[in-house]
Amino acid sequence: METTSSSKSNSNNSSSAVLAPISDSGQSGATYWIRGIVFTALFAALFIAFGYISIPLGFTTVPITLQTFAIMLAGGLLGARFGFWSIAIVVILTAFGLPLLHGNGGLGVIFGATGGYIWMFPLSALFIGLASDRIFARTNKLNRSQYVMLFLSLVLFSVILAYVGGVPWLAYKANYSFAKAMVNGCYPFLFGDMVKAIAATFLIATLRPLLPKLR
Ligand SMILES: O=C(O)CCCC[C@@H]1SC[C@@H]2NC(=O)N[C@@H]21
């Protein structure tokens, strides 16, 4: 993805520039990393903030939450590398005890009833990032089929992947049958998750071309 400055013309062929790779988008290696780290921190903060926007349903320990929306935006806007780390860093720090997931932290959260969803969150951001990197590698303005591809990747890698981890773990922790775990950990959330995926598709398609390239 990155070429050294020796492959670029004019001012980039000084010895100091050789130490600072130039990305495809023309930014120096230092600029790329500083931007990447700043955006990673911003989306980590967004993920933490959206964890507080949660609606308990009463009949289940799994809340409606905007965490998945933040994950879609992190992967879709930052791409695979920084999208993954923006979510992974929060999960890792939570595991070490920082109260970053709706004010709670520690292994009790990571291995609690909703732990299966939480483990999937960084992977969701990673796979969404890989998909959106591919889609936006070809164009900045999505056509209809690229919109559909982006939406489907959000559904597959955020919504479905969350349930692949979350539902069996919920069944194990709460001693539910798989069918009961689906009732408590999947069906009530599907409509809201689809709405988040639709909103995220349009936000990503609109905002990603305005952001500096982070790949
Ligand atoms: O305890 C946590 O921090 C994780 C909560 C997980 C909530 C899941 S994610 C998929 C589904 N969609 C929602 O809005 N809530 C559940």
Automatic annotation (TrEMBL):
Keywords of the record, alphabetical order, are: Cell membrane, Membrane, Transmembrane, Transmembrane helix, Transport
Q: Kindly give the membrane topology term recorded for this protein.
A: Multi-pass membrane protein
Q: Which regions span the lipid bilayer?
A: 32-57, 69-96, 116-136, 148-169, 189-211
Q: Where in the cell is it found?
A: Cell membrane
Q: What is its main location?
A: membrane
Q: What's the family?
A: Belongs to the BioY family.
The protein's name is Biotin transporter
* Organism in which the protein naturally occurs: Paenibacillus lignilyticus
